[in-house]
C-alpha cells in the first residue's frame, strides 16, 4: 500500500508540474508569425513614391533606377558606399512583417535595414539593424577574416548565419523580416536564419562586442524606417511589401 501511495503521489506531482521552460520559449519564438494585417506594397515595379533618400526629402536622382519592374542600386565601383546613397521608406514601422525578393550579382554587397532613425551627418547603420545581403562565396575568398555574422541573412555583426540558404548568384531570393515587440526573425527562402530578442542579456553581450557598441542610437527605438543600402554594388529588388500586426 505504501508503495502504491508513493507512486500515486509522484504521478500527481508530475501531472501538476508547470510546463518546462523550453515550451514557453517555443511559444515566444513562433508568436512573431501571427501577422494578420493587410499587405502594403512598397514597390510595385514602377513607382518609388513610398521611398526617399536617407536624410533627404526626395528619392535620389542618381545611383538608383527602376528597370523591368525592378528597383536597382547601381554599381559605382566604390568600396564603401555608392553615389546615390541609402534609401528609406517615408513611413515608420514598429511591429511589422517585411517581404521582398532580391538578386545579387558578382561581388554584391548590400543590406535591408530596419528601425532606422535619421540623424544628420550620421551613417544609416549607426541606428539600424541590418539583414545582410552579400555574395558570400566571393567575399569569403577575398576577405578571409569575414565572420558568419557578416554573411547573407545575418543580423550584421550581431547574429550569425549558420547555414547559407542563398540561391546562386543572379537568381531571385526571398527575404523576410519579422519584428513583434522585442522579438525579431530573419528568414531566407523559407528558412529561419536567425531569431533574437532586442535588448535581452544575450543581445547586450553581443552589442558590447560589436562595431555598434560606440553608437547609442543602434536599435534604440521602438519604431523606425525600413531601408535599402547603397554599398556601391549592383543589387536588384522586386515585390517589396510590408504588413503591420
UniProtKB/TrEMBL annotation:
Keywords of this entry: Signal
Xref: InterPro entries: AL/BT2_dom (IPR010496)
Keyword Signal: yes
Protein origin, superkingdom: Bacteria
Name listed for the protein in its UniProt record: DUF1080 domain-containing protein
Pfam family, one: 3keto-disac_hyd
Molecular function GO labels: hydrolase activity
Domain 3-keto-alpha-glucoside-1,2-lyase/3-keto-2-hydroxy-glucal hydratase: 38-243
